[in-house]
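Weekly modeling sync, notes
Attendees: S.R. (lead), two postdocs, one rotation student

Agenda item 3: backlog of single-chain predictions. S.R. asked that every request posted to the team notebook include the full sequence so nobody has to chase files. The rotation student volunteered to paste the first one in as an example of the format we agreed on. Action items at the bottom.

Example entry:
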Amino acid sequence: MPGFHIENFGCRAARADGEAIASHLRAFAERQPFESDMVVVNTCSVTSEADRTARAFIRRIHRRNPAARIVVTGCYAQRAPEELAAMPGVAAVVGNSHKALTPEIVLNLAQGKGEPSTIPPSLVPVSSLLSGSAAQAVPIWADDRFAHSFLEEAPPAPGVQTRPNLKIQEGCSNRCTFCVIPTTRGPSRSLPYAAVLRQVEEFVASGGNELVLSGINLGRWGRDFSSGLGRESLAGLIRAILTRTSLPRLRLSSIEPMDWDEELICLLSEFGGQRIARHAHLPLQSGSDAVLRRMHRRYRPWHYADKVSALLRAAGPDLTLGADVMVGFPGETDLEFEETLSFVRALPFGYLHLFPFSPRPGTPGWALHSASPVTAATIEERMAALRALAAEKTHAHRSRFIGRELAAITLHSPDSLASCGLTAALSENFLPINLGGRFPSNQLLQVHITALGLDGQFTALPDR
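Predicted structure, as returned to the notebook:
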């Protein structure tokens, strides 16, 4: 039986895409990348480093498994398809505009159905590129219409992923100056209300306990609908999930600060710590008003701080708050960076995701970087300062839970942990735990936190 492998790069939404593609390739056996006949590389392109990582993986696969046919999809495939099609070993490039067709394209290639007469009209490539010493034509599916972009997942079930992602929103209609996502994923689009509820119900029926709602711009779910039935907001959808299904725990992935409206915050007050995880990730990017304006972000530092205060009032101090912070945006001065440090220091963050600015071709940030770059040495110095502050914030937040009892879900444990008689787990409020004893994944337990290790992991015992 032919074998396939999917390698995912990037965000939760991208991983959900990869899981959906895998669910449609059941005719094949899933194997390791160096043993597979077909390798799907699901790329990210949010930074230049993400591009380099994808290219390095493609080169490594081709070097170690030259017979493999490599199909490249994702954001990089949308942004620069010809660049990827020119790489040795690449058999096809499928941009996000055609991602829903990826499984059928892979099947066609694997089964040798490459002649135009055998390909349905929807699967005819948009273009092709002559590549390699044999001058083979590498087909490319990518355009700016995004007509075949929303890849509805097979119903999520607890399996390889104990806490699977259900991607309910695709694309982004914001125009942040640094971001290439509106180009690589198109405008905001939502999975229909009925489809979301059906998938949640099937997840519960399969024995799932925690489901993560994800999207590229999750808070905009439903804004592209006009049913007039009160189902057009994320808060309305979540209330329906909690009232119409018996899902034990729902976790929300990243939501933009200004999309935390009063109704959504009220749900956290009503269900937080019970059926909604007390965990909120609000992208910050900068704590400087001037930098946020240059970024074309839709909030100011005081707006952000007000949202954090409202979330803490709703969920209580056990809320774990996370944020993304970008360092070295073009023109960022020492004073503006100090404003970010002061702002981060003042808020009770449980963790931070830190990123150096990466100029993306085709964005306004590309031109801003050309005019006012921040030096690499300055960026590294600032990253080091923020890493130290982030570690301090994380330690302060987690230390509060030593000796406490927390609700948790067991995860798939790596062999290195299981061999020590431990089980990986995650608390309801997003804290990593090494649990004493061997437990199957997908179990909801009460645990007693005994210590916090130097690696930031808790040790805990099951509450008997």
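Discussion: group reviewed the output briefly. The longest helix spans residues 376-399.
Action items: rotation student to repeat for the remaining queue; S.R. to check formatting next week.
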